[in-house]
Every structure is written in structure tokens, then in C-alpha cells.
Amino acid sequence: MSWKDDVYTVLERDPAPKSFKEALLFSPGLHAILLHRISHRLYLKGQYLLARAINYFARILTGADIHPGAKIGKGFFIDHATGVVIGETAEIGDNVCIFQGVTLGGVSTEKGKRHPTIGNNVVIGANATILGNIKIGDNVKIGAGSVVVKDVPPNSTVVGVPGKVVKKDGMTKLDLRHDLLPDPVVDAFMNISNSIAELEHRVAELEKLVKKEK
Questions:
Q1: pLDDT at position 172, please?
Q2: How far, in Å, are 73, 120, 182 from residue 117 at the CA level?
Q3: 34 in helix, strand or coil?
Q4: Which end of the chain has the lower number of beta carbons within 10 A, N or C?
């Protein structure tokens, strides 16, 4: 995979850059990815200090902290980079899109696998947090601000704190429309509102019957 592929990924996913040069020069998410790919190669060769030095520079430059040990597939896109944290043992599949403030973190100080594994064609909304050695299946959409601490099956939509699966019909293509995600809180209030309306209707009917009997 060439570094140019990462630039073309930005052009495909982000309507803001108007040219290849603009995407290359002024996309902090792209810079974070390109620098990570360099640091990851060094990390695999055992050059840990140099890998961490590049990681440190990338964090200052872009605001994203991606550990050199993290495994990231092709077609990875970060829309903005500020506040993104990806831990050492995190694994990310192909064609994954994440937004600012996303954390792929650990919940243990033990060595070994302790960060999430993300499948292919996954979209993770702004400020979402995914913690622990859990698996996020292919074609999953995670809503902004969600906190996910359990495995998520493929073709699902997750929202809330803690994250709950609210849809299982999946995505036929990479979908960035977070405004179309279901809101379980709103749905709950709608159900309550509908129940109240039904009760009011029944009370009104009973009042009519009582008046007739009088």
C-alpha cells in the first residue's frame, strides 16, 4: 500500500480538500496516519525509541496519539485528529472511519492484548470511547459519545452510555451520517408519550360511559 492511497482516502471521504496537494499538506488526520505507518514499521523492527519519538512528534503536530504498536489497515480515515487516542495493542481493519476525540483504550495494566479490535467498514463517531480487549464486528456504526465495553456483532448500530445495540440491519456501504443514528433516550420518551396518550384516551372513554350511566 502506497502513502498516496491514504491521501486518496481523504479525498474520497472528506469534501473539504479541493486537491491532492491540499489534502496532503493540510489534513492533520492524514498526517497522523502517515507518521503512524512510519513509526509502526520501526516498532516492528524493534526500534522502539525512534518509533516513540515519531509518535511523540505526531501527537504534537496533529493532536492524535496513536501508539506505534497499533495495527491499522488500509483505507483508514480520521476526520480531524484532535483528541484521538489509539492504544498499543489496538487492531483496526480496512476502510475504518473515526472522528475527533475517539479513544480505543485499555482497562488493564497487564501486558498483552488489552485494547479493542475493530473490524472492516466501521464508523466511530466523535468522542466515542471503546475500552478493553473487545471485538467490534464488520460494518458497525458507533454513535458519537458512546461508551462501548462489550463485543459488538457485525452489521450493528451502537449508541449510548454504556453502548447498546439499537440496530442490526447493518450498512450496505460506509455511512457517515451520524445525524441518522437512532436515539434510545428519545425512543424511550416517545414510547412513554404514546402510552400516556393511550391511557388518556381510555380514561376519556370511561368518563363517557360513566356519564351515560348517570
A1: 44
A2: 11, 10, 24
A3: helix
A4: C
